[in-house]
Specification:
2 domains, protein biosynthesis, 174 residues, alpha/beta, four-stranded mixed sheet, T_IF-3_C_sf, Ubiquitin-like (UB roll), T_IF-3_N_sf, Translation Initiation Factor IF3
């Protein structure tokens, strides 16, 4: 396994009789290794193997440090473009009163507007499991109240002592 510094074979580390040169500042074609190295030295650049799977190796004459820098920069840009999914949770009881419901609904709206997914659940303690229909009504009411900013991914479903519903924002994050 190559070290990070030796990610590519360059200059003297290339072990081949002939190489195929490609790129902007050279005449494309197959050259003996010594000729290709000499061409790179004349331009004060490095001979870098781009593909060691091909026969003969595909090489390019370029500034190796600049090449590594640009590759690192591209990977950093790709990483920055990745979207991180955040899941926020809101917990209800089966007999949550109107004021608590409104308070938690405002939080749910805020989470969905920020672009986070929302996991809402009703937690049944002890014998309150007999009110599972009330829990389902509560979650469906929340889904209906938030349909302008979010869509339901998973309808209310009982898992153990919890009835869970998943929602995600309607519009994409900018």
């Amino acid at each position: 396994m190559r070290k990070k510094e030796d990610a590519h074979m360059i200059n003297e580390k290339i072990r081949a009789k002939e190489v195929r040169l490609v790129g902007d500042n050279v005449e494309p074609g197959v050259f003996p290794l010594a000729t290709a190295r000499k061409m790179a030295e004349e331009q004060e650049l490095d001979l870098v193997v781009i593909s060691d799977k091909a026969e003969p190796f595909v090489c390019r004459i370029l500034d190796y440090k600049k090449f590594l820098y640009e590759q690192k920069k591209k990977q950093k840009e790709l990483k920055a473009k990745q979207v991180k999914v955040v899941v926020k949770e809101i917990r209800f009881g089966p007999q949550t009163d109107d004021h608590d419901y409104e308070f938690k609904k405002k939080h749910a709206e805020k989470f969905l507007e920020e672009g986070a997914k929302l996991k809402t659940y009703v937690f049944f303690k002890g014998r309150s499991i007999v009110f599972k229909d009330q829990g389902e009504i509560l979650l469906l009411k929340l889904a209906q109240d938030l349909e302008h900013i979010g869509k339901v991914d998973q309808l209310p479903k009982l898992e153990g002592k919890r009835m869970i519903m998943m929602m995600s924002p309607k519009k994409a994050i900018k």
